């Protein structure tokens, strides 16, 4: 018997179903998702298995024929339409299977190419963002920063001066000379932004003084409408110590003691030693302190490892310190009288005038400035670059009409405005541009406000005198507003500054 018509019809049915599965219509513009492809492969495998089963049935039916008539049966089968239909099924199955495989392979390759292209685009975008972010790092690392060991040297200098002051204070405990208090490091070195190499740095240290027993200091600010005062003085007055003399027995009252007893005591008052008239004399105070430093140094253990030389100065005590390796450090001791409980002092520093009288103690904000930078350091991220910005500003103003103090004022205003997180190294270039733009706007407007006067945004860690809080802001560029020639020169000098900065950022020096 030949293969049944029902069996061949079933084979043709499954073949047509298989074609419908493979070449079935798709929506316009739709792509088969992964789940649909999986179902198609599953159905194709099921059709393949079913067709294979039908072929096995056909083969079994063929084997039932007599082996003697195999050749005749085969010739007869080839002449029937069932054989050609069966062969067509096999060929079409192979063709469509190949087309399906090619289609799936092409889609997979396209998907990989799209994924690879997307990954490349993402990597390029990330690389561009990283390069933009690291632009500030590149310029910051290109600059040749000075070789410094500021923190260690500041600690060494403060320790040495502290020991000296402690020894002098003990030796003056029963005298009528000013009382010395613990030193305070001020200036660019202690604020952390000095642009100089180690061997050129001047370590400025504030030495607060108060009146000795039987005396009092009265601060006279001169014109209180002009702050910080440049003509302030310290008036010294005698106080009655009779009650204390009765309690302790060794206190001399300069007001009520008989003149003969005062002469016999041979202990002069402060008015007789360090004053001119009734006012404390800066030059006399500095000379007296220099002599005390020379006498006290040889009694300190540091004298075995260091050597100091006292340099001449009318308004401070300047020291040249040689360590065991013959390295030189310069120290300047500045005297100051605190104004109330604030961080404002009347200091022995020079004023901007050509000549400063010996009885003038100008108001100083050095301690307040140091505390502001200390506050910023405590609250800024560890990688903050605000001190590098200030250091770079101090480098470009060398030989320029603008002073480091002007750029320092600009930086303090910006530190009080721009979030501290934005002063990191990757934004170093942007912050330098902000500083230059702020300075340029101030020059154009002929106005730069003093940082502390009338500024309500000063951190609480900095204690200002009430006069500073209620005062109107002081214009540091008032001279530009008064003289057009000065303003024109300032604009030209600003261009010089900007060109220096560009050259420094480009070439590193």
Structure write-up:
The chain has 18 helices and 12 strands. 26% of the residues are buried. α6 (150-171) packs across α11, α13 runs antiparallel to α14 (404-415) and α14 (404-415) crosses α15. Strands 1, 2, 3, 8, 9, 10, 11 and 12 form an 8-stranded mixed beta sheet that branches. Strands 4-5 form a two-stranded antiparallel ribbon. It folds into 3 domains: 5-133; 148-365, Beta Polymerase, domain 2; 380-509, Poly(a)-polymerase, middle domain, CATH 1.10.1410.40. β8 and β9 (317-322) form a beta hairpin. The protein has helices spanning 5-22, 34-63, 70-78, 81-133, 135-142, 150-171, 187-191, 242-248, 259-265, 270-273, 282-297, 366-379, 386-396, 404-415, 428-445, 466-470, 478-482, 484-507; strands at residues 179-180, 184-186, 202-210, 215-220, 233-238, 275-276, 279-280, 307-311, 317-322, 328-338, 345-347, 363-364. With 509 residues, the protein is an alpha+beta fold. The longest helix is centred in the N-terminal third of the chain and has 53 residues, at 81-133.
Q: pLDDT under 50 segments (min length 5)?
A: 21-32, 126-132
- Helix fraction, binned, reads 40-55%
- Gyration radius from CA atoms, angstroms: 46 Å
Return the string of H and E elements: HHHHHHEEHEEEHHHEEHEEEEEHHHHHHH
Which architecture of the largest domain per CATH? 2-Layer Sandwich
The span between the termini is 104 Å
Number of helices: 18
Mean pLDDT: 80
Which structural class is indicated by helix and strand composition? Answer: alpha+beta
Task: Summarize the main sheet.
Answer: 8 strands, mixed
The shape is elongated
How many discrete structural domains? 3
Domain Mab-21-like HhH/H2TH-like: 401-454
Region (Disordered): 111-131
Membrane topology: Single-pass type I membrane protein
Transmembrane segments: 83-101
């Amino acid at each position: 018997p030949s293969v049944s018509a029902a069996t061949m019809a079933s084979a043709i049915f499954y073949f047509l179903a298989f074609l419908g599965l493979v070449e079935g219509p798709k929506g316009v513009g739709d792509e088969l998702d992964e789940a649909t492809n999986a179902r198609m492969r599953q159905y194709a495998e099921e059709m393949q298995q079913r067709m294979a089963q039908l072929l096995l049935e056909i083969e079994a039916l063929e084997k039932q024929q007599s082996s003697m008539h195999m050749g005749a049966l085969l010739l007869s089968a080839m002449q029937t339409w069932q054989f050609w239909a069966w062969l067509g099924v096999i060929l079409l199955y192979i063709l469509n299977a190949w087309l399906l495989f090619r289609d799936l392979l092409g889609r997979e390759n396209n998907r990989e190419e799209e994924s690879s292209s997307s990954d490349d685009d993402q990597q390029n975008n990330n690389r561009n963002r990283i390069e933009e972010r690291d632009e500030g790092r590149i310029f910051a690392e290109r600059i040749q920063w000075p070789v410094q060991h500021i923190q260690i040297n500041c600690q060494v200098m403060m320790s040495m001066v502290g020991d000296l002051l402690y020894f002098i204070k003990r030796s003056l405990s029963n005298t009528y000379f000013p009382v010395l208090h613990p030193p305070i490091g001020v200036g660019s070195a202690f604020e952390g932004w000095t642009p100089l190499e180690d061997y050129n740095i001047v370590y400025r240290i504030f030495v607060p003084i108060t009146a000795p027993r039987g005396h009092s200091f009265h601060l006279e600010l001169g014109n209180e409408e002009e702050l910080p005062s440049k003509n302030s003085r310290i008036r010294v007055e005698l106080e009655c110590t009779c009650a204390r003399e009765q309690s302790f027995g060794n206190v001399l009252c300069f007001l009520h003691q008989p003149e003969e007893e005062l002469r016999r005591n041979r202990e002069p008052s402060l008015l007789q030693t360090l004053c001119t008239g009734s006012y404390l004399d800066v030059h006399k105070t500095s000379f007296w302190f220099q002599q005390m430093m020379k006498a006290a140094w040889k009694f300190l253990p540091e004298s075995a490892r260091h050597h100091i030389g006292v340099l001449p100065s009318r308004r401070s005590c300047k020291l040249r310190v040689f360590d065991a390796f013959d390295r030189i450090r310069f120290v300047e001791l500045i005297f100051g009288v605190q104004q109330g409980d604030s961080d404002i002092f009347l200091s022995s520093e020079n004023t901007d005038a050509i000549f400063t009288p010996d009885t003038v103690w100008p108001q100083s904000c050095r301690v307040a400035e140091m505390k502001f930078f200390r506050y910023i350091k405590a609250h800024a991220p560890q990688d903050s670059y605000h001190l590098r910005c200030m250091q770079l500003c101090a480098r470009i103003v060398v030989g320029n009409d603008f002073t480091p103090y002007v750029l320092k004022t600009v930086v303090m205003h910006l530190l009080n405005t721009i979030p501290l997180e934005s002063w990191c190294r990757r934004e170093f270039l942007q912050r330098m541009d902000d500083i230059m733009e702020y300075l340029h706007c101030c020059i154009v407007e002929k106005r730069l406000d003093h940082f502390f006067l009338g500024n309500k945004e000063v951190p609480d860690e900095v204690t200002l005198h009430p006069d500073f809080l209620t005062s109107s802001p002081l214009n540091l560029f008032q001279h530009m507003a008064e003289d057009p020639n000065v303003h024109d020169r300032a604009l030209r000098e600003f261009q010089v500054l900007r060109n220096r900065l560009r050259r420094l950022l480009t070439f590193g020096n």
